[in-house]
Amino acid sequence: MDRVRQQTERLSNLFRDAGAVPVETSVLQPADTLLDLYGEDIRARAYVTSDPVLGEQMLRPDFTVPVVQRHMEDGAEPARYTYQGLVFRKQEAGTGRASEYTQVGYEVFDRADPAGADAEVFTLFSQALKDAPVIAETGDIGVLIAAVAGLSTTERRRGALLRHLWRPGRFRALLERFSHPANRTLPSILDSAPEIGLRTASEVQARLDALREDAKTDPLDPNELRALQAILEVSDVAPNALAQLREIAKDLNAIAPALDQLEARLSALSARGVDVNGLKFSGAYGRTTMEYYDGFVFGFHGEDAVPVASGGRYDALTRVLGQGREIPAVGGVIRPEMLEALT
């Protein structure tokens, strides 16, 4: 345990030396405000309790959301923060994973140069882990979001795909469903459906209207569908992956701006001394992490694939918590216990 504390302090000092201001957040967080921001996985694993005065509360499952909330309330620009402390998440029986563990993090709020901020965070984490036997992987959720948003289909279908982007099984099922002609006889079946269940008549009517609209919708464009599936299959070193994605963009031009950001990021990483020619990139990477990531995502893990560190860009989260204000933001966390187990 003493060695874990030493690792924690070493990481904290490294982040403070990089210009981060130490911050603390309460162990108890307001559940009604924050749970929806974490996504399905964390909601299912959060420890939630009811307080007679404070209302529904949860043990802190993560630092990023409360740090963003604090910054959007009264933070100056630009800003860099660091923190350390316990987070709490339920674990499935038999996994052997701790339900409470330490995170040490670094967050950057800076609108001047998002690509440079991405490179700053990744390089700093690489430096923090330079003596550990870890493997770095990267991805870009922004490319996937742009691909889905650019599909020539209904807003309803795009919205459904975006909601399930972080659940690969459901996402594949939706793609399969949307790639075939809908059942055109559905509206007449719906008109004769009996009124049963607990939902209100207006809720039922809204659902019927949605199903009728979907029944009239043409299947996804085959070229766009192949392009989206090709993005998910990209797995190579970063420059090669970018070249492959540029080819895919010929059939799905909506991803071109996200690819420009990816290219700028690789240039910024290279300028900071990162060997991008040896950096892994996967089009599907990051889809099982925090749902608030909407751009660059990265992780470091040992041979057992258990994450030692992870992070990414979460611009949209600042928009939600900023109530109209927003600022580009990126950060990540390191787990000292996992790091110490490798060294």
TrEMBL record:
SUPFAM superfamilies: Class II aaRS and biotin synthetases. Pfam families: tRNA-synt_His (PF13393). The keyword Transferase applies. Keywords: Glycosyltransferase, Transferase. One of its GO terms (molecular function) is histidine-tRNA ligase activity. GO terms for biological process: histidyl-tRNA aminoacylation. L-histidine binds at D62, F63, T64, R89, Q103, E107, R287, Y292, Y293. Residues 3-167, 209-337 form the Class II Histidinyl-tRNA synthetase (HisRS)-like catalytic core domain. Gene3D superfamilies: Bira Bifunctional Protein, Domain 2. It comes from the Bacteria. GO terms for cellular component: cytoplasm. This is ATP phosphoribosyltransferase regulatory subunit. It comes from Litoreibacter janthinus.
